[in-house]
Amino acid sequence: MSKTFAVIGDPIDHSLSPNIHSAAFRELNLDCSYIGYRIIKDELSEGIESLKKIKIDGFNVTIPHKIEMMKYLDRLDESCSIIGAVNTVTNENGILKGYNTDMDGFLEPFKKRNMNLKNLKILLLGAGGAARAIVAGFAKEHAHSITIANRTIENAINLVNFSNKIGLNANAVQVEDIGNSVKNYDVIVNATSVGLKNEASIISLDELKSKTIVYDIVYLPINTDFLKRAKEKDAIIIYGYEMLLGQATRAFEIWHGVEAPYNAMKKALLGVV
């Protein structure tokens, strides 16, 4: 029997998820389809009802619904409860269960490289939606400490409180106060949207030590200015598309119960970006 999946959000036309999942269905000969479904900010309740009516088998959730969607779930995976946001939903006979694949998706590229994050010092740029899942990921992997740098210090402080609560030692700074301190970190992550429009790196990487792990969660363009500057300093680079793939493969496995065809999904993604 044919199954239908979707991604909901607004805007939705830029989403790469339909391409990635459709490639996986083709690779494994699954009788499934995946659509982008635009639901505007104030119409989430009606949107979910219409998805239930067509008996949608599962869906991804993107901006602006990742927190609001929590209200409409019947069950929550632990990842969802910790992070306080949802991005993947299963529908079993009208029972909606929520998951958050951001944390696993974020950690996946480290695992693929056999990198151990234990006792490493982290600098995280940004304190928005994705940052919370990233902090949870570093806590899970027993990093040493995390510095959260944000333009709005209040948001950074909120995230510091969350981090300390789940057992990862944290402190907050304003982005403009980072200065030369980049040399004190083992891993630097850009979780802001700076780079999406080809803007210059949000911080100076002049003092970056070689072999520092530098990770940008922006996936378009693939080579942001932040990553280009990191490469010049001989950093170890992790691309945003790798997190996107990690999230997609995890969602695929939640829905289908089989291992996702990573290479087919990667090829489809890189063919588009």
Q: What overall geometry do the principal axes of the alpha carbons give?
A: globular
Query: Could you list the spans in which at least 5 consecutive residues all have pLDDT below 50?
Result: none
Q: Give, in order, the helices and strands.
A: EHEHEEHEEHEHEHEEEHEHH
Gyration radius (Cα, Å) is 19 Å
Short characterization:
The protein has 273 residues and is of the alpha/beta class. Helices cover 36% and strands 21% of the residues. The protein has helices spanning 17-27, 44-53, 78-83, 102-112, 129-140, 153-165, 225-232, 240-256, 262-272; strands at 3-9, 32-38, 58-61, 75-76, 88-92, 95-99, 121-125, 145-150, 170-174, 187-190, 213-216, 236-238.
What does this structure look like?
This protein is of the alpha/beta class. It has helices at 17-27, 44-53, 78-83, 102-112, 129-140, 153-165, 225-232, 240-256, 262-272, and strands at residues 3-9, 32-38, 58-61, 75-76, 88-92, 95-99, 121-125, 145-150, 170-174, 187-190, 213-216, 236-238. The protein has a six-stranded mixed beta sheet. Strands 9-8-7-10-11-12 form a six-stranded parallel beta sheet, sandwiched between helices. The protein is globular, with a radius of gyration of 19 Å. It folds into two domains: 3-100 and 243-272, Leucine Dehydrogenase, chain A, domain 1 (Rossmann fold); 104-238, NAD(P)-binding Rossmann-like Domain (Rossmann fold).
